[in-house]
Structure formats: C-alpha cells, structure tokens
C-alpha cells in the first residue's frame, strides 16, 4: 500500500490488517514515498509488535518534489 505522511493513520490500519481472518502471517508491502513525518518509525514499532500476524516489508523512496 502506498503511504506518505501517514504516521497517525498507520497504527489503526496495521491493527485492522492484523485482525483479519487470514493464515498468519499476512504479507503487507508498504511503499513510503517522500515521507516527512514519523511514518517509518511508526511502521518499525508496529512491525515488531505485530510480527506474529503480519509479515511487513517497507520500501522507502525519495523522489524529486515534481515527481512525488
């Protein structure tokens, strides 16, 4: 899922994904782009806490502003 400056929303989303009735761990790919808030730090904490339910991979990229 794409995410940009979503530090406040990511915990609720990740908790919702972790609560799905799906064989654990559920694979989740997060694409961070030009994030200027604490989205990465939030994901790192959530990934550690929810690792039994979610297999999270974060791909982070920084693009020139005109392309982001």
Can you walk me through this structure?
With 68 residues, this protein is an alpha/beta fold. The protein has one domain (2-61). It has 2 helices and 3 strands. It has a 3-stranded parallel sheet. α1 (10-18) runs parallel beside α2 (39-49). The protein is elongated, with a radius of gyration of 12 Å. The two termini are 15 Å apart.
List the helices and strands and how they pair.
Layout: E1 2-3, H1 10-18, E2 26-33, H2 39-49, E3 54-61
Parallel strand pairs: 1-2, 2-3
Protein name: Glycosyl transferase family 2
GO molecular function, one term: transferase activity
Keywords: Transferase
Which properties best describe this structure?
alpha/beta; 2 helices; transferase activity; Nucleotide-diphossugar_trans
Radius of gyration: 12 Å
Percent of residues in helical segments?
A: 25-40%
Q: Strand fraction band?
A: 25-35%
| Secondary-structure element series | EHEHE
Tally of separate helices: 2
Main sheet characteristics: 3 strands, parallel
Based on secondary structure, the structural category is: alpha/beta
Q: What is the end-to-end distance?
A: 15 Å
Spatial strand order of the main sheet? 1-2-3
Number of domain modules = 1
What general form does the structure show?
elongated
Write down how many β-strands occur, each being a DSSP E stretch of 2 or more residues: 3
Low-confidence stretches: none
Average predicted confidence as pLDDT: 95
């Amino acid at each position: 899922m794409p995410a940009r400056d979503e530090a406040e929303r990511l915990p609720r989303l990740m908790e919702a994904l972790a609560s799905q009735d799906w064989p654990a761990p559920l694979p989740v790919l997060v694409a961070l782009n030009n994030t200027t808030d604490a989205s990465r730090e939030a994901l790192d904490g959530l990934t550690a806490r929810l690792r039994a339910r979610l297999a999270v991979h974060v791909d982070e990229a920084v693009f020139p502003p005109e392309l982001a």
